[in-house]
């Protein structure tokens, strides 16, 4: 086997560019798969099914070359986590499992003008963690009693996204410029969201949820690119807030219902599935358009959710730091299917495609017309959360990201241990105490979540983002270190 090739089961991976490996089409695959990763990261997933899942995605109708995986790849539902795929608007499909159950799970960073030393001098870190835990409900089934919505209000949120929050006093109009798609997918159709999904979501706005969702107080630990950091509002040793959550029970219900619909209509449209979890609907079909409308509505709920949570975070800090100033660095989604324009080598002109990003982040290059004016020279901010004990990163999309990765990058560190394996390793330990010994204060709704989300459950974020940098998809801007963590 050549030094630039790897064998994983029946799949041969050949390095075609630095840090980019190729699986050529075979069997029922219509297109190839490009894997963005180091050799070491690839070997870490040799025993799971994520590469096979990516190859399965490559069998779907209308899929365009290549299917992509990011360096945080691990096995998911149908699509691997860290999977990216684009589909032709006329002949392609949309897969509810390719978006996932937490539609528009995403992450937002707020910058501030206060330093970590100000927090420590005032002995505020523990207090703020405790207060934020009380202000932002988290955990399985968490709800807000002070923000229950009428069905009419919910319809407006599903249609308007984050702009609903702004119109109702939860932020400023300028916030919308720093949210992907300005916080609203315009093809949302609230009528396609079921009554059951509405019931699950109507009192969950402004809540964090459970699992890997979090709210973190972080300090800017290292600046790699001073000019881009300045444009992003990042200063050494200053505090930032990172919010990671999605569409809660509403999005889960939308996904569940449309997976069932896709399975029931597969034979009607002659879609052969190599994996039932890849159940898909033709983009041009009535059912496909219905899912896209419902999915976009759930995505708008999630944009709005992060906007509401940001408001309560700001209000909490202002009680102790009246002169604090906040700015949204950026807000991005990493479980989504939406319409974007790309140029493929096999076509003369750019194409409008339905791109699925499941556990992947948009990473647009400098001068892309979708970027806000302050970021036209830098490229899009790419927010990459790590784990609650080590680091997170802010990257910037590079000039050739559209060509190399369909304008996409990793969305996090990626799990290395299953939840069951993590709990087994955590037995007899106090993860909270271990974190506090390293200067990280944690408050969570349950011990199980803490153990499942322990730092060792995740890959080394340094190695993951280095794979993105090595492939020249995005460049390093700053590294962030957690000092306070709220978990569901």
Question: What does this 3D model show about the protein?
Answer:
55% of the residues are buried. α6 packs across α11 and α8 runs antiparallel to α10. The termini are far apart. The chain has 488 residues and is of the alpha+beta class. It has an eight-stranded mixed sheet with strand order 1-2-3-4-5-6-14-13, sandwiched between helices. The chain is built from 16 helices and 20 strands. It has a single domain, classed as tRNA-splicing ligase RtcB, CATH 3.90.1860.10.
Kindly report the spatial arrangement of strands forming the biggest sheet: 1-2-3-4-5-6-14-13
CATH fold-level assignment: tRNA-splicing ligase RtcB
At CATH's second level, what is the architecture? Answer: Alpha-Beta Complex
Q: What's the pLDDT, averaged over the residues?
A: 95
Assign the CATH superfamily: tRNA-splicing ligase RtcB
What is the first-to-last residue Cα distance?
46 Å
Structural class: alpha+beta
Give the domain tally.
1
Cα gyration radius (Å): 21 Å
Low-confidence stretches: none
Output the CATH class name: Alpha Beta
What would the principal axes of the Cα set say about the shape?
A: globular
**Number of contiguous helices:** 16
Q: How many E strands?
A: 20
Helical percentage: 25-40%
Strand content: 25-35%
Largest sheet: 8 strands, mixed
């Amino acid at each position: 086997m050549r030094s630039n090739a790897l064998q994983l089961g029946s799949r041969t991976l050949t390095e075609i560019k630095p840090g980019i490996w190729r699986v050529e089409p075979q069997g029922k695959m219509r297109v190839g798969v490009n894997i963005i990763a180091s050799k070491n990261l690839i070997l870490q997933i040799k025993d799971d099914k994520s590469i096979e899942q990516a190859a399965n995605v490559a069998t779907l109708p209308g899929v365009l070359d290549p299917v992509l995986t990011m360096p945080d790849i691990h096995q998911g539902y149908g699509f691997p986590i860290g999977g990216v795929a684009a589909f032709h608007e006329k002949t392609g499909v949309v897969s509810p499992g390719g978006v996932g159950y937490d539609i528009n799970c995403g992450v937002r960073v707020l910058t501030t003008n206060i330093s970590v030393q100000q927090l420590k001098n005032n002995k505020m870190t523990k207090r703020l963690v405790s207060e934020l835990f009380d202000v932002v409900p988290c955990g399985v089934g968490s709800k807000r009693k002070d923000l229950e919505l009428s069905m009419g209000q919910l319809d407006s949120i599903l249609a308007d996204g984050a702009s609903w929050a702004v119109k109702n006093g939860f932020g400023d109009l300028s916030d919308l410029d720093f949210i992907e798609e300005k916080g609203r997918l315009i093809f949302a159709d609230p009528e396609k969201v079921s009554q059951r999904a509405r019931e699950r979501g109507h009192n969950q706005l402004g809540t964090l949820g459970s699992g890997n969702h979090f709210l973190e107080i972080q300090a800017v630990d290292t600046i790699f690119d001073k000019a881009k950091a300045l444009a992003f509002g990042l200063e050494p040793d200053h505090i930032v807030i990172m919010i990671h959550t999605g569409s809660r029970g509403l999005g889960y219900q939308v996904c569940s219902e449309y997976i069932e619909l896709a399975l029931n209509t597969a034979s009607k449209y002659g879609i052969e599935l190599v994996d039932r979890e890849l159940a898909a609907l033709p983009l041009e079909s009535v059912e496909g358009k219905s899912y896209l409308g419902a999915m976009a509505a759930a995505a708008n709920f999630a944009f709005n959710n992060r906007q509401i949570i940001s408001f309560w975070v700001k209000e909490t800090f202002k009680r102790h730091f009246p002169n604090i100033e906040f700015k949204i660095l950026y807000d991005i989604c990493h479980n989504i299917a939406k319409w974007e324009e790309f140029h493929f080598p096999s076509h003369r002109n750019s194409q409008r495609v339905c791109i699925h990003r499941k556990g992947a982040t948009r990473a647009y290059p400098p001068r892309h017309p979708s970027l806000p004016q302050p970021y036209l020279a830098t490229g899009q901010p790419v927010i990459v959360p790590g784990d609650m004990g080590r680091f997170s990163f802010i990257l910037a999309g590079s000039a050739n990201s559209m060509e190399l990765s369909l304008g996409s990058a990793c969305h996090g560190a990626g799990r290395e241990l299953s939840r069951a394996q993590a709990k087994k390793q955590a037995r007899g330990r106090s993860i909270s105490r271990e974190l506090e010994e390293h200067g990280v204060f944690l408050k969570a709704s349950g011990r199980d979540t803490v153990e499942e989300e322990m730092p060792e459950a995740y890959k080394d974020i340094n190695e993951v983002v280095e794979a993105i940098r090595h492939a020249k998809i995005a460049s390093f801007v700053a590294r962030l270190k957690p000092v306070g963590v709220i978990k569901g």
